[in-house]
Amino acid sequence: MGSSKPKVLLLGEVEHAHHSWSSLGEIADLIEPESQNRSDFLEEARSGALDGVLVVYRTFASVSITGNFDEEIIEAMPASLKFVCHNGAGYDQVDVAACTIRGIRVSNTPTAVDDSTADTNMFLILGALRGLHVSMLALRDGKWRGQPPPPLGHDPQGKILGIVGMGGIGRNLKKKAEAFGMVVQYYNRRELDPELSDGAKYVSFEELLKTSDIVSLNLPLNKNTRHIISTPQFALMKPGVVIVNTARGAVMDEDALVAALDSGHVFSAGLDVYEHEPTVHPGLLKNPHVMLVPHMGTWTVETQSKMEEWCIGNVRAAVSEGRVLSLVVEQQDMAN
User: Which one, out of 38, 100, 172, 242, has a CA that is 20 to 30 A from the CA of 130?
Assistant: First the structure.
C-alpha cells in the first residue's frame, strides 16, 4: 500500500541543513529525480513518475538538471504540484507567470542573503575604486605593483553611491557604505517610506546616472530590467564612474560595458554576476581594471545555511499549512 503523505521533490542538493531536511520526512515523502538533464527530466515528469509531488524544493544549481523552471517544465509537472520553493533571493530561473496560471505558488529566501551579498558588494566597490585588482594580478606574476604601476585609485569618503534597487540588499549596502563615509542616493520602482530609506535621497534614474561616482546594481532581473544599463545609460554617467553589479548579469549589457571600459569612460568595474554565466565576456577577462568574482555573493557557510533553513521552512509550511512564508512579490494577491 502506497504512502498517503504528499511528496516533496528535491532539485539540487541540501548541503548544510541536513537535520531540518530529514525531519520533513515526518510529514512528506522526500524524493529526487532519476534524471540528470532537461530532456530526461521532461520525459520523467511526463511519464507519471513524479505524480503526487506537492512541493518542489529547488536550488540555483538545479538549472543543470532541469534548465530554467519555465513553462515547458511547468506544463510537464503533475497536477498535484502547488508550490515551488526556490532556495535563493533572485528567482529569475522560475517562470512566475506560468506558475501563477497553474495556481502554483512560488517562494524565495529574500532577506537571508542581504548581509553576505552587501558585504561582497562593498568589497567590489572598494576594490574597484582603489584599482587593487591590477596590482594583485601583477604581484602573483612577480611584478610587484605592476610594470608600470597602475593609476592611483580613489578613496570612498565623500563619494556619491547611487544604488539602483533599494530592496533588502540595497538598504544593507547603504549602511555599510555610509560607514566608509559615502553619500548614498537611490532609484527604485517606488520611493521608500522614510524609515526604510533612512536618510538616503530618492532621485530619478537619469539623475542617479548623471550624478553618482559609483553605480551599484541591486535590482531583480525581469523583462523590464534586462539591459537597464546599456550604451545610452553609460553615456549619461560621469567620466571615471565605477560600476558594480551583484544582482544578475543581464541587467547590464556587457558589450556596452566593455566598450565603456575600453574608452576609459568607466574607470573600473566590480562584478559578481555575468550575462551568460558561467561564460564571462572576453572583453572583461582581458581588462585588468575589472574586478571579477565568480558569483560568490552568498558563498558563506552561514548564509548558505540560513537560505536552506528558510527554504525548508517554506516547504514545511506548504505541506502543513497550505501556504509559504515568503511568497514572491508578483503573487502577493495569492497569499492566504
Answer: 172
1: pLDDT confidence band, cut at 50, 70 and 90?
A: very low
DSSP 174-189: HHHHHHTT-EEEEE-S
Catalytic residues: 248, 277, 295
The number of helices, as runs of H, and strands, as runs of E, in the chain is 14, 12
Our measurement of the distance from residue 34's CA atom to the centroid of its chain's CA atoms, rounded to an integer in Å, reads 28
Mean pLDDT of the chain: 96
Give pLDDT tens digits for 21-50. 999 999 999 999 999 999 999 999 999 999
260: CB partners within 8 A, 6+ apart: 231, 234, 266
185-224 per-position pLDDT tens digit = 999 999 999 999 999 999 999 999 999 999 999 999 999 9
Sheet with strand 105-107: strands edge to edge? 29-31, 7-11, 53-59, 83-87, 105-107
Q: What is the DSSP string of 139-193?
A: HHTT-TT-SSPPPP----TTPEEEEE--SHHHHHHHHHHHHTT-EEEEE-SSPPP
Q: Rounded to whole angstroms, how far apart are CA atoms 321 and 215?
A: 42
Looking up cell 546616472 gives: 209
Distance CA 69, CA 2 (A): 28
Scan for cell 585588482, then name that residue: 133
CA-closest candidate to residue 331, choices 112, 100, 153: 100
Interval 86-103 mean pLDDT: 96
DSSP run (H or E) holding 261: helix 254-263
Amino acid at 31: I
